[in-house]
């Protein structure tokens, strides 16, 4: 039951863009429901953004305005600071640091900040008995942090994999369904607002890697280790790869994969071929999905919208409700002092199958040379596809391998690439048999 005696939770919001304005709208629309669920009101006492005059579609006349979010964190009198500016350094980092130093809880959607400074932030907060909550930082509206950290708290998690970037999933889905090239679909995605003017963080896999590093920390109880994530984006995936994938029974997805192996913890983001029958293969468009492999609960799949004002605000406000209620959990699932350094497993140790697409001169002996380069590295081929014949011209050849290790595959590809009958750099996509 709501406790009318309890003082409101006073919050200050830094950043009033897509997410910040979304949070203010949600708090306005759902005020009474939130009050029932918190047992107290959540009251916005201050806001900060760059441009005071900008219409944000929400009433700001009754709250204190700060040009400087760091000054707001220190001086607004709020119990909690919501950081929705973005970026791993600069005002976002300073705002969070100041909030903690002046004794205020923090809620943030900032995956870049947490991927790079997460462990240090957790230590600082814990030392002062403050909460830092970040449900919105990973997979937007999907309650994956809570799902892993609280819902699966009784399990040891051995693997997490997921579609962690809606922009890439949208682009790959459009490429598959329309047959268009990457550049063409990216331009459309930018017009529709699904991709930024500078899309590199998304399409080069960095955004997904930030989220994966956070998930791995929560899943495995290790310090956030973004520097060890292997990252490859989607720029090299061609329209023709979708046709071959279809013939071979696969879909192409940009996945983040974190796995405990005997060699240490694997963390990687790259395009993958996944069987069409895998549940994740049918998660299309801007949707995100995360699969956790847990020892007692077994396989758990989360699907939902990974971005946008509504889903992201939903996650931010869920964190506010937890803190208003006084619910608390260690920030990354275990006490910051116990977040051990993980031993990273190098990418060369990855074991699995591979898809390779080559453009070769249609000349006798070429295929035997490719097969020899593979055999010399102990890589065994599983399937081989060649379409059409065009003597002495370039023809595409596609092959898949049985499970092998990345180091052997890379050596075989280097030999193949050096051959004068191979006309373009080989294209390789890793196959994941979930
Ligand atoms: N957009 C999403 O769907 C989504 C989903 C999940 C997580 N996130 C994360 O949420 C955070 C915010 O994203 P967003 O999309 O809302 O960004 P955004 O639309 O670009 O908004 C950023 C806000 O920060 C303000 N700002 C920038 N520099 C500032 C400074 N020096 N001092 C004060 N305010 C400053 C901007 O002010 P002005 O408005 O005056 O320019 C703007 O209001 C990021 O960490 C992002 O990664 C976003």
TrEMBL record:
The keyword Amino-acid biosynthesis applies. PROSITE patterns: ACT, HOMOSER_DHGENASE. The keyword Protease does not apply. It comes from the Bacteria. Its EC number is 1.1.1.3. Pathway: Amino-acid biosynthesis; L-methionine biosynthesis via de novo pathway; L-homoserine from L-aspartate: step 3/3; Amino-acid biosynthesis; L-threonine biosynthesis; L-threonine from L-aspartate: step 3/5. Keywords: Amino-acid biosynthesis, Methionine biosynthesis, NADP, Oxidoreductase, Threonine biosynthesis. Residues 355-430 form the ACT domain. Belongs to the homoserine dehydrogenase family. PANTHER family: HOMOSERINE DEHYDROGENASE. This is Homoserine dehydrogenase. It comes from Azospirillum endophyticum. The lineage of its organism: Bacteria, Pseudomonadati, Pseudomonadota, Alphaproteobacteria, Rhodospirillales.
């Amino acid at each position: 039951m709501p406790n009318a005696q309890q003082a409101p939770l006073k919050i200050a919001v830094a950043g009033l863009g897509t997410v910040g304005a979304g949070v203010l709208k949600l708090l306005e629309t759902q005020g009474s429901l939130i009050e029932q669920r918190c047992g107290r009101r959540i009251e916005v006492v201050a806001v900060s953004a760059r441009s005071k005059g900008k219409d944000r579609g929400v009433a700001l006349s009754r709250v204190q305005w700060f040009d400087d979010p760091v000054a707001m964190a220190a001086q607004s009198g709020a119990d909690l600071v919501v950081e929705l500016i973005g970026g791993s350094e600069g005002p976002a980092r300073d705002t969070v640091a100041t909030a903690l130093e002046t004794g205020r809880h923090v809620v943030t959607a900032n995956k870049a900040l947490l991927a790079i400074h997460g462990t240090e932030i957790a230590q600082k907060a814990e030392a002062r008995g403050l909460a830092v909550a970040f449900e919105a930082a990973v997979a937007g509206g999907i309650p994956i942090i809570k799902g892993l950290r609280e819902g699966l708290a009784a399990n040891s998690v051995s693997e997490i994999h997921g579609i962690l970037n809606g922009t890439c999933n949208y682009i790959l889905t459009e490429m598959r369904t329309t047959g268009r090239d990457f550049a063409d679909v990216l331009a459309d995605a930018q017009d529709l607002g699904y991709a930024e003017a500078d899309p590199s963080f998304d399409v080069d896999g960095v955004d997904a890697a930030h989220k994966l590093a956070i998930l791995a920390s929560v899943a495995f109880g290790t310090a956030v280790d973004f520097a060890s994530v292997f990252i490859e984006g989607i720029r090299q995936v061609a329209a023709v790869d979708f046709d071959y994938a279809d013939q071979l029974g696969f879909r192409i997805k940009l996945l983040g994969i974190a796995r405990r192996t005997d060699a240490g913890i694997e963390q990687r983001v790259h395009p993958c071929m996944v069987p069409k029958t895998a549940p994740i293969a049918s998660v299309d468009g801007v949707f995100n999905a995360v699969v956790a492999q847990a020892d007692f609960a077994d396989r758990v799949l989360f699907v939902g919208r990974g971005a946008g004002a509504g889903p992201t605000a939903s996650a931010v406000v869920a964190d506010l409700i937890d803190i208003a209620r006084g619910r608390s959990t260690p920030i990354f699932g275990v006490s910051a002092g116990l977040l051990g350094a993980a031993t990273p497993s190098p990418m060369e140790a990855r074991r699995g199958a591979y898809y390779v697409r080559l453009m070769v001169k249609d000349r006798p002996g070429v295929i035997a040379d490719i097969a020899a380069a593979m055999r010399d590295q102990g890589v065994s081929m599983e399937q081989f596809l060649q379409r059409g014949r065009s003597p002495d011209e370039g023809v595409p050849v596609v092959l898949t391998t049985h499970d092998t290790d990345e180091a052997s595959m890379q050596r075989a590809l280097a030999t193949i690439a050096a051959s004068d009958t191979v006309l373009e750099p080989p294209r390789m996509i890793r196959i994941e048999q979930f």
